[in-house]
Amino acid sequence: MAGGGGGAGTVATVGVLASMLLPALAKAKAKANAIKSVNNAKQLGQAVMAYAADNNGKLPAANQWCDLTLRDAGSERLFISPQDPTAQVRVEAGQKFSSYTLNAAVAGKNLGDLPFDTVLVFECPLGWNGAGGLADIQRARTEPGLYSQLQNIAVTTVGGSSQQARFSDLERLNWTGQRR
């Protein structure tokens, strides 16, 4: 019967190891989702810029931007942030949904007239063809749910740079499309 009484000790050891590993796995998954979200925002920014290139430099209208850039984006999946679990549920229910928003201040404007640091596309749950600005993401942060728990959102600028921006830094970004 050698080695026969170690079952409880083994289970306890596995439990301790699992309790140490699970938070690290959750943190790694959150980081991977944030990276994927930035990639989606970058590709959506490129789709918006491709639309402008095909339309004499003019950016899409605010209330149609998803519809007008879908061809260049290539897939509705690109509009779904991996940081937004409610979006996937909506898509599976047959709804068109976007976790990303066009900056309403740039809609319909000429891309060449905007400073490179202007926010073009950002992560905010305003839905398909949603357009808005800083006040919309600030409002989303105050509502219970996903955005109240996030620390960062994906942002793409007119210049094509994409990043995870901390909520505390959002006010420093160019939301108006005016030179500063």
Task: Write up this protein.
- There is one protein chain.
- With 180 residues, the protein is an alpha+beta fold.
- Helix 1 (7-54) packs across helix 2.
- A 5-stranded mixed beta sheet has the order 3-1-2-4-5.
- The protein has helices spanning 7-54, 65-73, 85-92, 134-142, 146-149, and strands at residues 100-103, 119-123, 131-132, 152-157, 162-166.
- It is elongated.
- The model has no long low-confidence stretch (mean pLDDT 89).
Task: For the record, give the distance between the C-alpha atoms at the N and C termini, rounded to a whole number.
Answer: 79 Å
Structural class by SSE content: alpha+beta
Gyration radius over CA: 21 Å
Strand content: 5-15%
Question: How would you sum up the major sheet?
Answer: 5 strands, mixed
Mean pLDDT: 89
Estimate the global geometry from the Cα principal axes: elongated
| Total DSSP E strands | 5
Number of helices: 5
Order of adjacent strands in the largest pleated sheet: 3-1-2-4-5
The residue fraction in helices comes out at 40-55%
Helices and strands, in order, run as: HHHEEEHHEE
Quaternary organisation: single chain
> What are the low-pLDDT stretches, counting only 5+ consecutive residues below 50?
none
